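Thread: "does anyone have the structure for this chain?"

Original post by V.I.:
We have the sequence but no experimental structure in hand. Need at least a predicted one for the grant figures.
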Amino acid sequence: MTTPRENLLRTLRRQGFETVPVDNNSFCPSQVEAFKARFGHTDIAGWFGNPCRGVGVAMQKTYTDAKALFPRETLPADISFNEWGIGHSRQPNCHHMTHMHHPLAGDAPLAEIQNHPFPVITADAEERLRTQVAEIRAKGLATMAGMACTVWETAWYLRSMEDLMADMMTEDERATVLLDRVTESACARIRVAARAGCDLVQLGDDIGMQHTIMMSMEMWRTWLKPRLAKVIAAGREAKPDLLIFYHSCGYVLPFISELADIGVDILNPVQPECMDFAEVHRLYGDRLSFWSTIGTQQTLPFGTPAEVRAAVERNLRICGAKGGIVIGPTHMVEPEVPWANLVAMKEAAADFRL
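Reply from O.Q.:
Generated one for you, tokens below.
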């Protein structure tokens, strides 16, 4: 019998499977607390039989005074900052979403964008990650290095979406400098993840909205596609069999073929409210595998257990004997999702037979 890791890698390469892989490791805080109350622990990945564990490349900040990075904004008292100097403050009535504060927003001069203190990879990051990978693999599990917000999202988190969009549309040098700096950081991180032996790397930038794409194909091809391709190439140079997982919420159908062209292996999440999985698979199922297809806008929160089971079985039958799918929620499991529906998803995958 194969290990969960071997089974996962086989199905992601569309070479068949012994059991259907399930991923259900993104719970909102209230769902984590409910799980803990039910079982007395928070090993959600273990309970659902997730064959993969997330790991990361350790980064450290290089700034000393985060508030000094915001010369054009008066910041709230309850703000916190990540290693990029991006600020987050709490919003009333929001369970786990924050208001984002962009240090490079507004009339930031080019020199400020050139000199903004980016985080750096810690000196022991690769050694620590290699140890983690070995420990996880000894348990028969795969590893996926988290590098979402790869280029576009990190850049607009720093600059603001409105300002970066305007920079791109007007061919402002600030867009070139910022996107190139973020790309080089991503290339450095993916090289470390690949050399440490990670099976997969999770890339991603949201480029879709509910029913349309976020920007024109021309803009994406000019500004983002070549930079994403550079990141993927850097990982593959270090580890040729590295599997590339790409996340974007929303409607991304026009991008999919070109994502596959530049080396994406796995598309996540394929939201059924935005795209029909049967159509996506018909067009690209011979080139891509799919991770998470059970909707968190409709089916999981508002469907019945029988409807959840039907959605799982439908998508598994679409993929057929070669596999190429990991069953899971399309996004975070929010407070409205009944526990019975999560159990139904797990059991439908476990019970599936062609």
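V.I.: this helps a lot. The longest helix spans residues 173-195.
O.Q.: and The mean pLDDT is 96.
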